[in-house]
Amino acid sequence: YVCTPSNDWLLFNTVEDCYEQANYVYDKSYQKPKEYCHNLLNRWVEETGDSFQLPDIRLPQ
Predict the structure, then answer these.
(1) Domain that holds residue 28
(2) Which pLDDT score, from 0 to 100, does residue 59 have?
(3) Residue 36 CA to chain centroid, in angstroms?
(4) What is the CA radius of gyration of the chain?
(5) Helices (DSSP H) in 1-61: which residue ranges?
(6) How many structural domains does the chain have?
(7) Has residue 13 been placed in a domain?
(8) Is 2 helix (H, G, I), strand (E, B) or coil?
(9) pLDDT tens, position by position, 20-59
């Protein structure tokens, strides 16, 4: 899971796609893993006092 302030975010399945060719961040079947990673990152941001603004992780309709 990768998110940056100015770029699209990334979510890879490195078990099935070790070369990270497929970005699953907008795949509805990966919503739960994305939420898990997002929550971990959010917790780290809060615990460290980082000013990074996390993106909205809701999928487009």
Answers:
(1) 1-49
(2) 61
(3) 9
(4) 12
(5) 31-48
(6) 1
(7) yes
(8) strand
(9) 999 998 899 998 998 899 899 999 999 999 999 887 777 6
